[in-house]
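Hi,

I'm pasting everything inline rather than attaching a file, because the server keeps stripping attachments. The sequence lines come first, and each chain or strand is labelled.
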Amino acid sequence: MIPERWLNLGVLTLLAAVPLVASLAGQPFTVTLATKIAIFALAATGLNIALGLGGLVSFGHAAFFGVGGYACGILASHARNYEPLSTWPWDIEGTTQMLTIWPIAVLLGGLAALVIGALSLRTSGIFFIMITLAFAQMLYYFAISWPTYGGEDGLPFYLRGDFPGLNTMDPIQFFGICFALLLAALFTFHRLHRARFGLSLEAARQNPERLRSLGIRPFHVRLLAFVISGMITALAGALYADLNRFVSPAMLSWHLSGELIVLIVLGGVGRLCGPVVGAAAYFLLEHWAGAASEYWQFWFGLLLLGVVLFARGGIVGALAKDHTHD
Amino acid sequence: MTEPILTTRSLRKSFGALAATDDVSLDLRPGEIHALIGPNGAGKSTLIKQIAGEIAPDSGTIHFAGQDITTKHAAARARLGMARTYQISSVAPDFTVLQNVVLSLVARHHGAFGLFRNVLKDRRLTDAAREHIARAGLSGRERQRATDLSHGERRRLEIAMALAQSPKLFLLDEPMAGLGTEGASELTGLLDGLRQQAPILLVEHDMDAVFALADRISVLVYGRVIATGTVAEIRANAEVRTAYLGEDA
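And the predicted assembly:
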């Protein structure tokens, strides 16, 4: 067992160092793989606030991932085609500036989470899982049937957004952006966890009746957690759209919601770097085992089963002592 | 006479044909311990739940600290200064003793919406929490997880959490339940000192504790208050003796 802090430091250093070396060695594919890991770790860190701290098993976080992705894709495609998004009552132009796209994606993700959360959080347990799934599926089918932005075929937009002073088409520079945002999200998670809000959120998970009789309504705490969670996942969605220069309804599908849960369960529920470790393990396995066998997901399923049965704290829990209570 | 802290007027609550609370009017004055006794199924817990705001009465009113709280939800009542403990200890099991008490302080005085500062590094909070823990007799156990505490320690933790709320009223639902003779007498001593801070509405089956602590006693049978009075009056009351104390009058 090693202290969790060291494990986190090691994991993040590795995630930063490997693409740097790969980039110097002229291996852009490895950089792209690391970027994908960073983006999914970011999305899962968002979910980890709701699921890990709040115990809210959202099976609909693809909704926020997709909202972020489509926000990015729609703004970018309008900017590239020089078509305003709307001309009445206001002129709204598309944009390729990441610094404009991100706040819009985050805001829309938060808004979606506010609406979905306000309705879903009145239920709990299996009903919460199903209703979040239902909302995400609604958005999924809406995206499929909306021809303006590609419908089922998705929406390509050829170039990544612009970031002042950086060339975002250079894989390592784009990785740097994603990694920096991942660090910011992890810092946010850490601060929230230790603050009054995290204490209340974890109490709402463990014993909501008690929290209520102490004077805090669990619903309010959970709703804010859900909104922050959706915002972070939406930001990851915007980055993922930029990575692929393409958005499609697949970003909204329930597979993606499930994948995000799997990343957290694999890495360690409620652990700071659980999503990072989970994403790294998942995509590395996909890369290596996927090359060896078409049926790699079968072996991955076995691994996941093992983790759930024998290592409830996920990979982080198996390697590091839990000292959230120190 | 001073104004009561808590007053219920004609509270009624039925579950189907069963009248769990039947025209209950009682009050709690500053500085007193008012014990609520009665046989199993008399509706003591149902009454406590209505006072705490966990279930709504069918009719009647509840006044607390000078205002009508009949329609206020449980969290609002807690913020007005109502501290409650449960018949079966109810704490956050994965939290340490210190975290549980800090949670209680936060809920009462600050609210949940602090997003940035590390709550366990806030000396004002942890120092205050340690004082309440010490008063409840749990010093040295601050970093123990609540789930690892013994039954008696968990009862004390609940008292510490109630103290941290700096309440205007304690609602204690069978605090002695499951404690041995020694534990019960220790807790009796602790509760005895508490009435100076805020009055206590005490539901309890342990008659030694009730007779030692209570300034007044109300006897609840089939949802009705059949008698209210001092310890001596209740002991002497023939109806109470038949209905509850199990003696032939």
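Residues 290 and 296 of chain A are 5 Å apart (CA to CA).

If the labels don't parse on your end, tell me and I'll reformat.
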